[in-house]
Design goal:
InterPro entries: DUF4854. This is DUF4854 domain-containing protein. Keywords: Signal. Pfam families: DUF4854. It comes from Candidatus Caccousia avicola. Helices cover 48% and strands 23% of the residues. Helix 1 (2-18) packs antiparallel against helix 3 (38-52) and helix 1 packs parallel to helix 4. Strands 1-2-3-4-5 form a five-stranded mixed sheet. Helix 4 (79-107) links the parallel strand 2 and strand 3 (114-120). The protein has one domain: GMP Synthetase, Chain A, domain 3. It has helices at residues 2-18, 31-36, 38-52, 79-107, and strands at residues 56-63, 66-73, 114-120, 126-132, 138-140. The longest helix has 29 residues, at 79-107. It has 141 residues and is of the alpha+beta class.
């Protein structure tokens, strides 16, 4: 489980590096434009290829001001047994996601960006979804 959370964090931090830069004009007009950029698409593809052998597919999309990472496992897992471990790791890594959201505010023309992590089982059912808003708390669904 920690390996998967590590993957989540690594991809998010890679996105923050893509967004690094200075200047007053923000390079991206929207989260959608950011997600569709060549740099981000390459990062997602590399991460997905790296963990495909482990049965994990990673995708990124935009939903308004939300940057949505979907992590899909190829083999069905016991969701009920997995959720507590995921929740603990999400809580432990919340400050890292806050840093990525700050980078989003600096690089994308959005006022209230957030990151949504969706963990999806092989049958397409959602195991856990968590939205990080940059505050000290995040919301689980």
């Amino acid at each position: 489980m920690k390996k998967i959370i590590g993957i989540l964090l690594a991809v998010c931090l890679a996105f923050s590096c893509v967004a690094c830069g200075g200047g007053e004009k923000k390079p991206y007009a929207s989260v959608e434009e950011f997600v569709q950029s060549e740099e981000v698409q390459q990062q997602v593809q590399q991460a997905s290829e790296q963990y495909q052998a482990d049965g994990l597919t990673i995708t990124a999309s935009a939903d308004g001001d939300k940057l949505v990472f979907t992590y899909a496992v190829s083999t069905q897992i016991d969701a009920a047994a997995t959720i507590p471990a995921l929740e603990m790791e999400f809580d432990a890594q919340a400050s890292s996601f806050t840093q990525v959201i700050q980078q989003m505010r600096e690089q994308i023309e959005v006022e209230n960006p957030s990151i949504v992590l969706r963990y999806v089982n092989a049958d397409g059912s959602e195991i856990l979804s968590r939205e990080f808003t940059g505050s000290t708390e995040s919301e689980a669904s």
